[in-house]
Amino acid sequence: MRLRTDARPQLPRKVRHSWSRMAFFQLSQRSLTLSLPLHSSMYLLPFRVAVLLPQEQAGSLSPPVLVLLGASVAAFLIAVLSLLAYSALLPSRNYVRAGRTALNTELLQRVPALSEVFSPPFWAFNAYIQTLLYLFSEIAQLLLWRHFKRQVLVMPDGGSVALDWWSDSETRDLPAEAPVIIVQHHMVGSSRHHCWMARCAWRRHGFRVVCAVRRGHLGPLTSPRFNLLGSVEDLRLQVDAVRRRYPDAPLCMVGYSAGTATQLRYLGEEGAASPIVAATTTSFAYNSTPGYQGKPSAFERLNWLADLYVRSHVKSLFLRQNRALLQHIPGFHACLRAKRLSDIRDLCFRMEGCASMEELDAQNPQEVFSSIRIPLLSIQAADDPVCVIVNVVDWAHVYDEPQDRILVLTNRGGHCAHFEGSWWPKALSFADRVALEYLHAVLDIRREQGAAVVSTPRAR
Q1: Bridge partners, 212 (sequence order)
Q2: Which fold has domain 95-292+367-449?
Q3: Are 122 and 412 in contact (CB under 8 A)?
Q4: Phi, psi at residue 158, to the nearest 5°?
Q5: Strand segments (E) across 52-147
Q6: pTM (2 decimals)?
Q7: Which of 98, 164, 318, 342 could form a disulfide bond with 299, CB atoms 3.0-4.6 angstroms apart?
Q8: How do 160-166 and 148-154 pair as beta strands?
């Protein structure tokens, strides 16, 4: 056998792997030492790795080490590209549209957050990332959910709704006259999404928070009826229950997504006699009736991915869970086969307690929007994949009326999300922070004036 004198000695496998790990450790130490004075020039990292690696050791690194080096370079490039994209897509100042009233003018001065820049974390400026953060925030808030104490209300038809009261060690001693915020959750949500807001509402502004939980969201149905957007009759009874419990407390409302439809329908029907002092909405969808004033409904404009997500959860939450109770109602099986959320909305009118499709269409919140006579703040994101921007464009003119209504439109924020922060999203979202500051300012003005605020058009 011919012996090659220039060949590298073949070490045992265990020793060879140990030598590779030692080489990588030495490389890491040398890289760290040399990169300390170059911390501001991270773009040189790939070149430093190439220079630090001795030529005679380049072919001896094990595959795991090469994978690690490749992943480090890939992570570096992704970080650079993300920062560049974030810089290019950095949101501008909010678009604010408001009626010319004295109260709106005062509120725009007292709540500077209405017009400030919404700045999401550099890695979470995308609408879908923001929306996913909102959905996963329910998991992060589970430990706080125990602070909600449930009060179940039985409706005249036997259906069940609830009031989830935020009650921790700090809020139990609130005075009876402390202002109350009634939260309206989204279509497939519950009070679990609003723990952070409830805690910050008390700590920062002295609000007591209660979440109005709709039919089907507190367990199986107790009567053969549910509502995709909620029921004004149920909400009216929930508000009455809150008033009986705290008769001297000012009442406010904060609504999200589908919950805003019932909230604004209620406020429009009540008009000037509403017991609610002020309200805010986040991700309001506006028109819920196809063809109303020649415009499509919000259901028909849903992004396909959002439609798929919401539709699957609607079928699970309302239909499959209550099959024994609802399967005899016409339209039930057609709803299970539906391929669009708008089809479910058109087919389930009997399960919503309506005798005809026309009766369901008559519950459109946009029909009575102009009858709202209390201060109202609407917060929308231009990149919302659920309540899309064209809905806002179609109905933005309602904020030009000489009423106490303000529209705040951010470039980014996703659906009901608006998580802000530099590196990591803050617990309290931009939308919730602005909503709480707005309601606080309205109540301060009421106290200063000693009476209910009356809208007075401002001279042009």
Answers
A1: 163, 184
A2: Rossmann fold (3.40.50)
A3: no
A4: 95, -5
A5: 95-98
A6: 0.80
A7: 342
A8: antiparallel
